[in-house]
């Protein structure tokens, strides 16, 4: 089938609307909403949150604001971002895994880390890491071909593949020996400690909750494991004067451009943990959702495969030519944003588009809501990659898969290159279909996770 024929199919049919959880009733009690937030915030939002510009409510003794307008979001994340810090519940959940790394540090510590890490994530630096991405993806395809006769858990396959990419780009070695332990850490934390409890939400940060004691024990084991990985990489050495060969070299060589300081060992460990976890888990989840959507939408899947075949005919996959593949990734992250919620607490009084804000008020910017808002998108719940091919990009404050402003994700370019290349290779190699019709629903637990791992049938092309 030609690219033109596939395109004609896609523009004449009704777009796919994937399944989503039911919306909460707008009259849900505050207690009921807090319980839902602890389970999955996605299930705590009602109709108003998808239709109104700003939804004001109460959170314990303070006001809360859900922001759905680009002007308000720009004010909080760009114009006055230093007045808005992470919430205590967010710190409780993230710190045991990420320590004081870039993702959750604040103030001077964050500025120092951002300045120091920036050279390691430039497009030029990422280009040197692409061979690791390609090799790991090709190895995954080889393994999947051997298993293509029966049902396949592509979510697990994507987790293994992105973990392998994370290990190789970080340390120049595979994760054969350490992958199982790392996955166990991630699964243990996600299933038991990543969901905030009621006490996590109501107690001040300085008052430990029962979950906090468990998180502290977890962190001790986790930091020892990360230290083991770093020691193994250091034992492999580095030739004096040789260019950096991986992210560990790049981060170890990094110096603050203002002070000349390098990271301490503890700081480097927190950065390693942040990059491995943020890098592999979010990309694995985005690739899973993309494969799920394409399995539900065979015509779009064939359009992507036709693009890949056309680009590959030139000999290599040039990512700049994979425009439709990139649009599928962009649309996937619109419907299933890796970070579904950005929660901030006001450090001092402010005014947001005419709404007075007091100290400690809670500000919620939810990409899950923003990306499906009735006023910002046409057919907001539909899977329509073509919306990213119009030549007019969405408002940068209405589409936030990697955040925006000073704290935009430093690894965004890395993640987009990895996800686009991997999806192109996978769909270029296989047709994917689901083995059952039970819907897969999103759950908000740090990232936008599926509520189950469906089995896929894959057929070599």
Could you give a short description of this structure?
Helices cover 50% and strands 10% of the residues.
What's the CATH class, please?
Answer: Mainly Alpha
Strands in their spatial order, largest beta sheet: 1-2-7-4-3
What is the CATH H-level superfamily? Cytochrome P450
Task: Characterize the largest beta sheet: strand count, sense, and whether it forms a barrel.
Answer: 5 strands, mixed
Count the beta strands. Answer: 11
Strand content: 5-15%
Distance between the termini: 13 Å
Shape: globular
Class inferred from helices and paired strands = alpha+beta
CATH architecture: Orthogonal Bundle
Can you walk me through this structure?
- Its cofactor is heme.
- Residues 1-25 are annotated as: Disordered.
- Pfam families: p450.
- With 461 residues, the chain is an alpha+beta fold.
- It has a single domain (3-460), classed as Cytochrome P450 (Cytochrome p450, Orthogonal Bundle), CATH 1.10.630.10.
- It is built from 18 helices and eleven strands.
- It has a five-stranded mixed sheet with strand order 1-2-7-4-3. A two-stranded antiparallel sheet has the order 5-6. A two-stranded antiparallel ribbon has the order 8-11.
- β5 (350-352) and β6 form a beta hairpin.
- α1 (3-12) packs antiparallel against α15 (298-312), α9 (154-171) packs antiparallel against α14 (265-296) and α15 packs across α18 (412-429).
- The chain is globular.
- The model is unreliable at 1-7 (pLDDT under 50).
């Amino acid at each position: 089938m030609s690219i033109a024929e596939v395109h004609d199919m896609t523009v004449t049919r009704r777009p796919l609307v994937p399944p989503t959880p039911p919306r909460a009733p707008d009259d849900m009690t505050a207690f009921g909403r807090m319980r839902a937030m602890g389970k999955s915030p996605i299930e705590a939002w009602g109709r108003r949150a998808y239709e109104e510009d700003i939804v004001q409510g109460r959170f314990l003794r303070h006001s809360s604001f859900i922001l759905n307008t680009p002007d308000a979001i720009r004010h909080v994340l760009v114009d006055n971002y230093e007045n808005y810090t992470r919430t205590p519940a967010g710190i409780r959940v993230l710190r045991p895994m990420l320590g004081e790394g870039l993702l959750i540090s604040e103030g001077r510590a964050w500025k120092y880390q951002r300045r120091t890490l920036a050279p390691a994530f430039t497009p030029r630096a990422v280009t040197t890491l692409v061979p690791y991405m390609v090799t790991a993806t090709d190895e995954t395809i080889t393994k999947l071909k051997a298993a293509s006769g029966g049902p396949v858990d592509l979510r697990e396959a994507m987790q293994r593949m992105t973990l392998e990419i994370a290990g190789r780009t970080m340390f120049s070695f595979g994760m054969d020996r350490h992958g199982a332990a790392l996955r166990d850490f991630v699964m243990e934390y996600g299933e038991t400690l990543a969901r905030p409890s009621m006490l996590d939400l109501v107690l001040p940060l300085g008052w430990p909750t029962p979950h906090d004691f468990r998180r502290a024990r977890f962190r001790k084991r986790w930091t020892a494991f990360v230290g083991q990985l770093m020691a193994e990489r250091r034992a492999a050495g580095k030739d004096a004067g040789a260019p950096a060969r991986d992210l560990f070299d790049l981060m170890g060589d990094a110096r603050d451009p203002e002070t000349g300081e390098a990271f301490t060992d503890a700081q480097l460990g927190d950065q390693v943990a942040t990059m491995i976890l943020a890098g592999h888990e979010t990309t694995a989840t985005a690739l899973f959702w993309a494969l799920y959507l394409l399995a539900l939408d065979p015509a779009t899947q064939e359009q992507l495969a036709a693009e890949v075949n056309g680009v590959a005919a030139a000999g290599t996959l040039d990512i700049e030519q994979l425009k439709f593949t990139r649009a599928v990734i962009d649309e996937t992250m619109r419907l299933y944003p890796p970070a579904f919620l950005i929660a901030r607490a006001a450090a001092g009084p402010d005014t947001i588009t005419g709404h007075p804000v007091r100290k400690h008020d809670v500000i919620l910017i939810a990409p899950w809501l923003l990306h499906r808002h009735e006023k910002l998108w046409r057919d907001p719940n539909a899977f329509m990659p073509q919306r990213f091919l119009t030549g007019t990009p969405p408002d940068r404050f209405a589409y936030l898969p990697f955040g925006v402003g000073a704290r935009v994700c430093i690894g965004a370019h890395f993640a987009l290159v990895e996800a686009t290349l991997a999806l192109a290779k996978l769909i270029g190699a296989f047709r994917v279909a689901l083995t059952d019709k039970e819907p897969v629903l999103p759950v908000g637990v740090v990232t936008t996770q599926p509520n189950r791992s469906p089995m896929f049938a894959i057929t070599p092309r």
